[in-house]
Design brief:
The structure is a single chain. The chain has 215 residues and is mainly beta. Helices cover 6% and strands 42% of the residues. It has helices at 19-25, 125-130, and strands at residues 3-5, 31-32, 35-36, 46-54, 57-71, 85-91, 98-104, 109-114, 120-122, 132-135, 142-157, 174-182, 191-193, 211-214. The protein has two helices and 14 strands. The protein has one domain: Sandwich (Immunoglobulin-like). It is globular, with a radius of gyration of 16 Å. Strands 1, 3, 6, 7, 8, 9, 12, 13 and 14 form a nine-stranded mixed sheet that branches. Strands 2-4-5-11-10 form a five-stranded antiparallel sheet, with no helix packed on it.
Length: 215
């Protein structure tokens, strides 16, 4: 399983749209989300992430290039995984509970917690609203657009997103995690991961295949 050292920086007073340039100035490199785990879904769009911790929470910058994009989910906690979607799954402790933070290409999100894919508890409204988002494509929904498109998303995820735990600061933590790129209902469905997933059918809810973030 992969291990990634996550750097900590004090986040200055920046608009989220300024974060990619700020991370560039710090020399933060992108990590590819490029593992094709299921041969029946061979399409591999260009997808990558970079993550740092800050005094305000996790700061994640995704960058994607794909041959079509869609942002149909009407609101937070809708089916964002059917759109052009990037995802951060993580376990802050060893009690078996993991969180999924899923975000489509216009910053519409889904956050839930639980021990498996079937019994998930959706995050309360105040948790969803605490996640700050920016997208290079804007924030308005749209139907699928065919044609190669590049897009970026920045998420500032407060530690309180771990709403079933009491996490005030990630410093010194080893967080088990995986990152994904998917698009279940796009013209070309795909299911990519940062860390490989060793099961027969597409399933991102597999914490046994999480890598490690050393914060």
């Amino acid at each position: 399983m992969k291990t990634l050292k996550v750097n900590h920086f004090e986040l200055p007073a920046l608009a989220l749209e300024e974060v990619p340039a700020w991370l560039d100035s710090l020399g933060e490199a992108f990590q590819p989300i490029d593992t094709v785990n299921w041969a029946e879904y061979p399409y591999r769009p260009e997808a990558a992430f970079r993550i740092v911790t800050t005094q305000r929470g996790f700061l994640i910058n995704y960058r994607v290039k794909e041959k079509s994009v869609a942002a149909v989910a009407p609101a937070d906690c809708g089916p964002v995984w059917e759109d052009s979607c990037v995802e951060f799954f993580s376990s802050p402790t060893d009690d078996g509970v993991y969180y999924n933070v899923e975000c489509n290409c216009v910053g519409t999100i889904l956050v839930a917690a639980g021990k498996d894919r079937h019994e998930r508890t959706r995050a309360p409204k105040e948790v969803l609203e605490s996640v700050e988002r920016w997208s290079s494509l804007g924030r308005e929904n749209f139907a699928e657009r065919i044609g190669e498109t590049e897009w970026e998303v920045v998420l500032l995820i407060p530690y309180s997103v771990y709403f079933q735990h009491d996490v005030k600061d990630a410093a010194g933590m080893k967080i088990r995690a995986n990152f994904y790129k998917c698009g279940d209902r796009l013209q070309t469905p795909h299911f990519l991961s940062w860390n490989p997933i060793g099961v027969a059918q597409p399933d991102f809810h597999r914490p046994e295949f999480f890598g490690t973030l050393e914060c």
